[in-house]
Amino acid sequence: MNNNELDLKHYDVRTDLALEAKEMAEGAGGGPIPGVLSDVTEDNGISITRLHVQNEQGSQAIGKIIGQYVTLEVPGLRSGDTGLQDRVATHLAKEFEAFLERLSINKQSRVLIVGLGNWNVTPDALGPLVVENVMVTRHFFELMPDQVAPGYRSVSAVAPGVLGITGIESSEIVHGIVEQSKPDLVIAIDALASKALERVNTTIQIADTGIHPGSGIGNKRKGLTTDILGVPVIAIGVPTVVYASTIVNNAFQMMTEHLEQQRGDTDKIFGLMNKMGDNERLMLVKEVLNPMGHDLLVTPKEVDQFIEDIANIIASGLNAALHEAVDTDNVAAYTH
């Protein structure tokens, strides 16, 4: 199969991360993907991958919409290092400012922040937690505009809940709010699904392609996109869950590598499984687990602290990127 024929739907591996979709496509095709450009920078424990899906060929190859994707990978976030968290917020602010510039969002443009997810379920509470911590100013501009200090813009925020709580699609609620408040930009924040356990709660993705709530866990929901809302939409997401089948498959791969170092030959132990490709083996694991209802969504036991920390990081980064009066290099001072 050549690069032009790659189609991730064949593998049925659910991931919301464009970086992972690219890695899967490269693994299947054996090389770079035409129509997809990427570059990586490193800064003392923070890896930033900027991915540009340029055309339909690249979009088909990795299964992601044409647009810009930026991924911040920070394995050290699990350590609770507040200094590292501050640096991540600063990088997030600067990367987000680049998105604003590309979309021609000026300093006076009005912004609506939408925190998607279920506030009653910790791994899905990222959006509502960010909404609690962002700097909301629209009411000041509406009620007392002459008293607003320079360097701030009109920012509103809402956590619309989930279909099971409200009986209304999130996109329908947001569409009504957009029609009434008329923002120039919508920022949608949601929890994502990853195919790699090490990326859970350590990775932040920014994309200018909008968002489809629940897509990473197989739910088909009406999305929040420019076509639907009529204004630009920037999505920010953090993978907070991974499938049990992915964990089993990763464990098998680690066992194989460990035994190869110890014994050299693992064919006698694993036989045919040893000759399967990664995606083929994952499909076999899913085939075994799904009928029994065991292909669960899994999150680390420390998710309570992780979700609060990363919500604060995102809120701090947004405060700095959206309000000129907030010092981008000292975002920690503005965390609620």
Automatic annotation (TrEMBL):
Reported modifications of this chain: Autoproteolytically processed. The inactive tetrameric zymogen termed p46 autoprocesses to a smaller form termed p41, which is active only during spore germination.
GO-annotated molecular function: hydrolase activity
UniProt keyword list: Hydrolase, Protease, Zymogen
Protease found in the keyword field: yes
EC number annotated for this UniProt entry: 3.4.24.78
Propeptide: 1-16
Origin superkingdom: Bacteria
Pfam families listed in its UniProt record: Peptidase_A25
Catalyzed reactions: Endopeptidase action with P4 Glu or Asp, P1 preferably Glu > Asp, P1' hydrophobic and P2' Ala
Enzyme class label: hydrolase
Subunit and partners: Homotetramer.
Function: Initiates the rapid degradation of small, acid-soluble proteins during spore germination.
Homology family: Belongs to the peptidase A25 family.
Protein name, entry field: Germination protease
